[in-house]
Design goal:
There is one protein chain. The protein is of the alpha+beta class and 505 residues long. The chain has helices spanning 9-34, 45-99, 106-129, 187-191, 221-230, 232-236, 290-304, 387-390, 412-465, 469-495, 500-503; strands at 131-132, 135-136, 145-148, 156-159, 170-176, 180-183, 197-198, 204-206, 209-211, 217-218, 240-248, 256-257, 263-270, 278-283, 287-288, 309-313, 316-321, 326-333, 341-342, 354-355, 361-367, 370-375, 380-382, 396-398, 400-403. The strands form 8 sheets. A 6-stranded antiparallel beta sheet has the order 16-17-11-22-5-25, with helices on both faces. Strands 6-21-18-13-14 form a 5-stranded antiparallel beta sheet. A hairpin with a 2-residue loop joins β8 (204-206) and β9. α2 runs antiparallel to α9 (412-465). Residues 5-142 form the Flagellin N-terminal domain. It is found in: Secreted; Bacterial flagellum. Flagellin is the subunit protein which polymerizes to form the filaments of bacterial flagella. Its main location: secreted.
């Protein structure tokens, strides 16, 4: 055993360990006081980096949720305003419907026109007032607005709302008034190589969708309307068409007595087929009266399942269909001196054709129905080859925008068109509302995901940064005990040099 006075190894060793225990005890006290396992980088450098990144992501997810909630708020404000616009549009629709009835006189229709214009002004005010945080929502400027919802850069979605101003609401329209054509010939020869025949060498195109006939056919508004309404691509674009046809004979009716040796055959064509659907024959001695002709046309049309209705209005022959073309071909045989056929007493035509008394012959006329093709957005069309028959001003071009400011209900025709335009507008507004609803659902799903992710991220951070109190308390007790025992042993170690005095006695 070596005893030294100048150097007490045992005391030095014990002191070093006491300092180490003190550091550990202080660290444990700090952790228990703050609740954090990592209070500085020296505690766990890698852990600090990971925990800080997790904390950043959690905070960014919270902010992303707030950003998404702002997007929902903007969409809710816009949707509420569009709901008000929808109410105004439904009022406008019923007023246009009221104006379409011919029991209204000019003054009543003017009053309805003023009411509609006031509703249009209200729509403009609503669209101008809709805003979020000073940003206009329904004036057409809210386009490609970025909502940053994610924790990282470029985790965004865009949000756009179309304009709901009266000048931007309406329908894009291609209208045809329907054409008339007559000739001193058979109906097939009458329409041959003209815009009143849709030939197999021709095509029409609506918004990029093409129709080619399988065989030469009479130009028919109902045929085109059915094509538009039955095409899935055009349906997805919101494009729809309506057709109607009403032929009011140009001249009032005069009874026709079929002369001896004569016969008169009236062939009726309905639709695009180039063959007659039925024929009515009057022989010598019979009298062709308006009531009898109306009765026979309705009877034969009903038997053939045709959408043809005949009536007598103001002593004129009126023929109506659901848009199908109406064709009349009248053939007179014999040369009786009292049988005169005037085509314009049978059908509405551009010029009258006559089979004069004393001669035989054939005359024919065709009346194409009117058509309206409407869509919520601009589209191109090409009706080359049949535009004249349909009564369309330009054979090719872009559909014309009929906005709410241009609505006119001062007559039946314009009021009917106004109803169609308003209906398309209502569908567009509903589509806008639907889109805003989808945006809200999407943003709410993002918020729910962000909140869940933020919770899981904080849990992950907590496992790294926060102290396990049970474990740390056990460690603290250990260090505290070591400190107490170390101090006791240091006191003992300090007594060792005094043993030298025993040798010096």
């Amino acid at each position: 055993m070596a005893l030294r006075i100048n150097y007490n190894f045992q005391a030095e060793f014990t002191h070093v360990n006491i300092l180490k225990t003190e550091r550990n005890l202080n660290t444990s006290l700090e952790r228990l006081a703050t609740g954090y396992r990592i209070n500085s980088a020296k505690d766990d450098a890698a852990g600090l980096f990971i925990a800080d990144q997790l904390n950043l992501v959690a905070k960014a997810l919270d902010q992303g949720s707030r950003n998404a909630q702002d997007g929902i708020s903007a969409a809710q404000i816009a949707e509420a305003s569009l709901s008000q616009i929808y109410e105004k549009l439904t009022d406008m629709y019923t007023k246009a419907q009221q104006a379409a009835t011919d029991t209204n006189d000019a003054n009543a229709r003017l009053a309805l026109q003023r009411d509609i214009q006031k509703l249009v002004d209200a729509i403009d005010r609503i669209s101008a007032a809709a805003e979020f945080n000073g940003i206009n929502l329904l004036d057409g400027t809210f386009k490609d607005k970025v909502i940053h919802y994610g924790a990282r850069a470029d985790q965004t979605l865009t949000m756009s709302i179309d304009s709901a101003r009266a000048a931007d609401l309406g329908a894009y329209v291609v209208s045809g008034t329907g054409g008339n054509k007559s000739a001193a010939d058979t109906l097939v020869n009458n329409i041959n190589a003209s815009d009143f025949e849709f030939e197999t060498t021709e095509t029409i195109n609506i918004a990029g969708v093409t129709l080619t006939p399988t065989a030469d056919e009479i130009t028919d508004a109902k045929r085109i309307a059915d094509f538009v309404n039955g095409n899935t691509i055009l349906q997805e674009l919101g494009i729809e068409a309506t057709a109607k046809n009403k032929s009011v004979a140009n001249q009032t009716w005069n009874n026709i007595t079929v002369d001896t040796g004569d016969s008169v055959t009236i062939s009726v064509f309905v639709g695009p087929e180039e063959t007659a659907d039925f024929s009515i024959t009057y022989n010598a001695g019979e009298v062709i009266t308006l009531d009898d002709l109306v009765s026979k046309i309705n009877s034969q049309a009903s038997a053939a399942g045709l959408n043809l209705r005949a009536s007598a209005v103001d002593n004129k022959l009126v023929l109506e269909t659901d848009g199908e073309t109406i064709g009349i071909e009248i053939a007179k045989t014999g040369t009786g001196n009292t049988t005169t056929i005037d085509l314009n007493r049978f059908i509405q035509v551009d010029t009258n054709q006559q089979v004069a008394s004393g001669s035989a012959g054939t005359v024919s006329g065709v009346r194409v129905g009117s058509i309206d093709i409407l869509g919520p957005n601009s589209y191109n069309y090409d009706l080359t080859g049949i535009s004249g028959g349909l009564g369309v001003t330009a054979a090719t071009g872009s559909a014309t925008m009929n906005n709410l400011n241009a609505l006119d209900v001062t007559n039946n025709t314009s009021a009917e068109l106004a109803m169609k335009v308003i209906n398309i507008t209502i569908k567009k507004v509903d589509s806008l509302r639907s889109s805003l609803g989808s945006i809200q659902i999407n943003l709410q799903a993002i918020i729910d995901n962000n909140d869940f992710s933020a919770t899981q991220t904080r849990e992950a951070e907590s496992r790294i940064r926060n102290v396990d109190f049970a474990k740390e308390m056990s460690n603290f007790t250990k260090q505290q005990t070591l400190m107490q025992s170390g101090m006791a042993m240091l006191a003992q170690a300090n007594q060792l040099p005094q043993l030298v005095l025993q040798l010096l006695r």
